[in-house]
Design brief:
heterodimer; A: about 280 residues; mainly alpha; 9 helices; 3 strands; about 40% helix; B: about 450 residues; alpha+beta; Rossmann fold; Neuraminidase; six-stranded mixed β-sheet; 5 helices; 31 strands
């Protein structure tokens, strides 16, 4: 009898212990598991900018735009502060002087030299867009009536650079870098041959799943909406988008090298709405 | 008892450990994964760089290189392809089909597509022509076909190969295995000689169909057969004729109390829409069934109604009318019901031609002192002007509805034919022995 009473007590104690343990475990799962998942990557919104002439103060380094590109690629998404962050760097090559006024003058002289160099470099990319029809930048479909309207305008639109040179890791402009997303977009735009004359070309929206190697080369580019591949126009558009990603002129992809793991997987959506 | 409790507790713990591990695993593997989407909404419009190699020929002739030459010319003429310099090719042509393409070699020179082929003798003195098309960047074969034909038919084979490549890469139906009928012009303006002529779309195999003794105008091809309709002033009477290109037979379409002109076949080739003036200067549009000879009047409005052109589904007709004081483009149902105006821009509109693709209507427009060639959607929206000249007339669509041919007349009276892509790109002059006007594009040859 005593042994039975004792085993009952032990049983109740075990049940209680088990119950408490289960409650604690459930609480830990509910509260703790969500914190194991990292917060979603927040991409900065592309910042629309106007490319204008080089201003009196630039963020470029003395050595030139190539190094500036590398510098900017290492920076996080652009925010207004960068000019302040970059400002000290141009000062480094200037020999230290005791007089702050002399230092400022030396900096101004340096900047003026760089501005001249930038102006000399500018005509190289400029003729390329200048040769295209003005309306062609907005649409790839020719329209003589629009061309006539544009020639009558007194203010010609500013010449827009074509974007990063194919394969180059950086930027043509010595302005502040736009977000990594926009940089990649501008690179791919140079390689995407849009099927402008296809029937209902504006409806040919293609999604490509891209896997990127750590060295920023493309491991694979797979067409996602395969259910439409029986339509010859869609298939042609999909393969055109695929060729854009696989094009050696767009390799390696314009991505920050130290964050390649974040860009290992991506989906590129090709929609020709802006050029039709 | 204690032992049983301990065992149960251990089992429970193990079970929870398994549950916990399996639920955590997705997170463990997904810590480094980012779900990134990038929209690409702009691009370029350039010819696709392609490497077309000489077809290896073991038949003892030059047919292989000749076929490759015609294929290259066709694709380049479309404006959508650009042949790379053969001097830059790394892999020898005769190795490509035998050993497979070395994609790295073709990528290096910038090729995005590769074409290789062979010509080998077949039984009965025939030739077997085989070709393959590869996507260099994706590294896979896109097309591969073989034809058996007589040696003198190599041009047709070349055009068919070009059509296959064009279709596979662009999604458009090809148009290279086609012919152009047009009016060849010569002589001074006061004694102009006009003859019907026919040639391959690349200008080859040119020959005259009439001798120039009668004035001929506006030939139009039957979309379903090797037959044309045209207007002739034979015996001083302007009437519509039918001409069977295979038999050479000509016949008057019908006898009408007045002048018949501007004929055009319906999409099924069984009837012809035409214009008729019955006294005065007004004209109306009629349709005649070629088998039953039944004639139906489609327009009935006191104006100049002319230039009927069927939609490819045969349900609607575009036409030109000055019922609203100036020439404008209208669309009506195939039975003449519901005519409604679709052109509303500045200037005067005329000569509507419905694209075989159905999505556009080509037209000519007079604005200021210039003529324009343009396209618009069947509802009148999306008007684009793609060419201009002192005088432009006579647009005709290639059977795939992608390319237009038309003629321009200069102030000196000379007329030349041109082709242009519907995007407005790639305007090219068609090579003809004499002045040329009023082109008509055939359907794909059978």
């Amino acid at each position: 009898m005593a042994a039975a009473i004792s085993s009952d007590k032990e049983f109740n104690g075990a049940i209680t212990t088990s119950f408490i343990f289960h409650v604690v475990l459930l609480a830990a799962l509910i509260i703790g598991l969500p914190h194991l998942k990292p917060p979603p990557l927040e991409l900065s919104q592309p910042i629309a900018i106007d490319i204008v002439d080089v201003g009196p103060v630039t963020t470029t380094q003395v050595q030139g735009m190539g190094q500036v590109a590398k510098q900017n690629d290492n920076k996080p998404a652009p925010l207004p502060p960068p000019p302040k962050q970059a400002a000290p760097e141009p000062v480094k090559p200037v020999p230290a002087k005791e007089n702050p006024a002399d230092q400022r003058k030396a900096l101004d002289d340096l900047i003026g030299t760089e501005a001249k160099k930038a102006d000399q470099n500018k005509p190289k990319p400029a003729p390329k867009p200048a040769q295209a029809d003005p309306q062609q930048f907005d649409s790839l479909l020719k329209n003589l009536s629009k061309a006539q309207d544009q020639t009558q305008q007194t203010n010609a639109p500013p010449v827009k650079t074509a974007g990063p040179a194919a394969g180059a890791p950086g930027i043509q402009s010595d302005k502040l870098t736009i977000s990594e997303t926009d940089a990649l977009r501008r690179q791919i735009e140079q390689c995407w041959n849009v099927p402008t004359g296809s029937k209902d070309a504006g409806d040919l929206i293609v999604e490509i799943h891209v896997v990127v190697n750590p060295d920023r080369t493309v491991q694979s580019a797979d067409i996602m909406n395969t259910d439409k591949m029986s339509d010859p126009y869609f298939r042609a558009a999909a393969e055109s988008a695929q060729r854009a990603i696989l094009n050696p002129k767009c390799s390696p992809l314009n991505l920050p090298p130290d964050r390649a793991a974040d860009w290992h997987d991506m989906t590129l959506r090709f929609n020709p709405k802006d050029v039709l | 008892m204690r032992k049983n409790m301990t065992t149960s507790f251990a089992k429970c713990l193990t079970l929870w450990a398994i549950v916990l591990a399996s639920s955590l695993s997705p997170f463990a593997s997904g810590v480094a994964r980012a779900d990134i989407h990038v929209d690409i909404t702009r691009g370029i419009s350039e010819p696709i760089p392609v490497a077309i190699t000489n077809f290896a020929d073991s038949s003892g002739g030059q047919t292989g290189p000749q076929i490759a030459g015609v294929v290259t010319a066709d694709l380049e003429r479309s404006g959508l392809f650009r042949q790379l310099n053969p001097a830059s090719f790394i892999q020898p042509a005769d190795q490509i089909l035998a050993q497979g393409p070395r994609m790295a070699d073709w990528k290096t020179i910038g090729a995005q597509a590769l074409v290789a082929g062979t010509v080998t003798p077949a039984s009965g003195g025939m030739l077997r022509v085989e070709f393959r098309l590869w996507d260099v960047l994706a590294g896979n074969q896109m097309a591969g076909l073989a034809y058996t034909t007589t040696a003198d038919n190599w041009r047709r084979i070349a055009h068919k190969i070009a059509d296959v490549i064009y279709n596979r890469v662009t999604g458009e139906t090809g148009y290279f295995d086609t012919r152009i009928v047009y009016v060849a012009e010569s002589g001074p303006a006061t004694h102009r000689v006009k003859r019907l002529a026919i040639m391959d779309q690349d200008g080859a195999n040119h020959k005259f169909l009439t001798d120039g003794s009668d004035l001929v105008l506006t030939p139009r091809f039957n979309p379903a057969a090797q037959e044309i309709t045209f207007m002739s002033f034979r015996n001083g009477r302007p009437r519509v004729y039918l001409y069977n290109l295979e038999t050479g037979q000509q016949r008057i379409m019908g006898e009408f109390p007045g002048m018949t002109f501007a004929p055009r076949f319906a999409p099924d080739g069984r009837s012809v829409v035409f214009s008729l003036i019955r006294g005065g200067s007004n004209s109306d549009i009629f349709n005649m069934d070629l088998a039953s000879r039944h004639v139906k009047q489609l327009t009935n409005f006191p104006a100049i109604n002319t230039g009927g052109s069927y939609s490819p589904d045969g349900r609607q007709v575009a036409f030109e009318s000055d019922r609203s004081a100036h020439q404008q483009i209208y669309v009506m149902d195939a039975d003449g019901v519901n005519p409604h105006r679709i052109s509303f821009g500045d200037g005067r509109y005329g000569t509507p031609v419905w694209s075989p693709r159905g999505d556009l209507i080509a037209f000519t427009k007079i604005l200021g002192n210039q003529f324009y060639l343009g396209v618009m959607r069947p509802d009148g929206s999306g008007e684009r002007l793609i060419s201009q000249a002192w005088h432009i007339e006579g647009p005709t669509w290639a059977p795939n509805g992608r390319v237009l041919m038309y003629f321009k007349e200069g102030a000196d009276g000379h007329t030349k034919m041109y082709s242009i892509d519907l995007t407005g790109m790639n305007e090219r002059q068609a090579v003809t022995p004499l002045d040329a006007s009023d082109p008509a594009w055939s359907p794909l040859l059978p």
